[in-house]
């Protein structure tokens, strides 16, 4: 990250509309945004950890900043259930990144057959209560949908439009 870039609030992330996605709600932006849990520390300059946390976020070099969030409303009152659901979702997203040729930070894996650019920006994956009862395969499919839409959201509109036209042409043949 360059010194001129400003790390923005997580409230600047926009929700992605992903049809068929039932386990997650994804908020994404092409810029960098700190995690929801550090909002209070970063935005209050009088907080004792403000400077150290601000420096730590500014020193990050990962191209994709992403994290999973499980709320009490969605994950229930038990902390152990929310933690399990969050870990399960994080593993599913990490494996989906690997299947698409990325490491867990959004960098392309060297020598990968996919080629292309790194994923960039910030993503907050909010885990919904329906993920609690999904089987591993179904959760993996949902995670694959998330990564596919992050790739799509990152491409310029002209590339998305031309890819859509190419798909329509193939289906007409």
Write up what this structure looks like.
This protein has 173 residues and is an alpha+beta fold. The chain contains six helices and four strands; from the N terminus they run E-E-H-H-E-H-H-E-H-H. It has helices at 39-43, 50-58, 72-75, 79-99, 136-154, 157-172; strands at 14-15, 24-29, 64-69, 121-127. It has a four-stranded mixed β-sheet with strand order 1-2-4-3, covered by helices on one side. A hairpin with an 8-residue loop joins strand 1 (14-15) and strand 2 (24-29). The longest helix is centred in the middle third of the chain and has 21 residues, at 79-99. The protein starts with 13 loop residues before the first strand and ends with a helix. 21% of the residues are buried. The mean pLDDT is 88.
Note the quaternary state here.
single chain
Strand arrangement in the largest pleated sheet: 1-2-4-3
The shape, in one word, is globular
End-to-end C-alpha gap = 45 Å
- Report the total helices: 6
What composes the largest sheet?
A: 4 strands, mixed
Give the overall pLDDT as a whole number: 88
Short overview:
The chain has 173 residues and is of the alpha+beta class. It is 43% helix and 12% strand.
Task: Give the SSE map.
Layout: E1 14-15, E2 24-29, H1 39-43, H2 50-58, E3 64-69, H3 72-75, H4 79-99, E4 121-127, H5 136-154, H6 157-172
Parallel strand pairs: 3-4
Antiparallel strand pairs: 1-2, 2-4
Helix pairs in contact: 4-5
Task: Label this structure with key terms.
173 residues, alpha+beta, four-stranded mixed sheet, globular
């Amino acid at each position: 990250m360059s010194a001129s870039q400003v790390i923005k609030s997580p409230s600047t992330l926009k929700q992605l509309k992903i049809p068929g996605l039932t386990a997650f709600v994804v908020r994404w932006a092409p810029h960098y945004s700190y995690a929801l849990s550090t909002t209070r520390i970063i935005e209050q300059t009088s907080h004792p950890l403000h400077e150290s946390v601000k420096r730590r976020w500014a020193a990050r070099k990962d191209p994709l900043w992403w994290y999973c969030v499980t709320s009490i409303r969605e994950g229930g009152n038990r902390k152990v259930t929310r933690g399990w659901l969050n870990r399960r979702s994080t593993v599913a997203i990490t494996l989906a990144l690997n299947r698409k040729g990325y490491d867990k930070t959004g960098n392309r894996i060297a020598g990968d057959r996919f080629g292309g650019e790194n994923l960039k920006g910030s993503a907050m994956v909010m885990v919904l209560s329906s993920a609690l009862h999904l089987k591993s395969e179904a959760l993996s499919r949902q995670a694959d949908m998330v990564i596919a839409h992050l790739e799509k959201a990152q491409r310029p509109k002209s590339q998305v439009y031309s890819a859509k036209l190419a798909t329509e042409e193939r289906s007409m043949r």
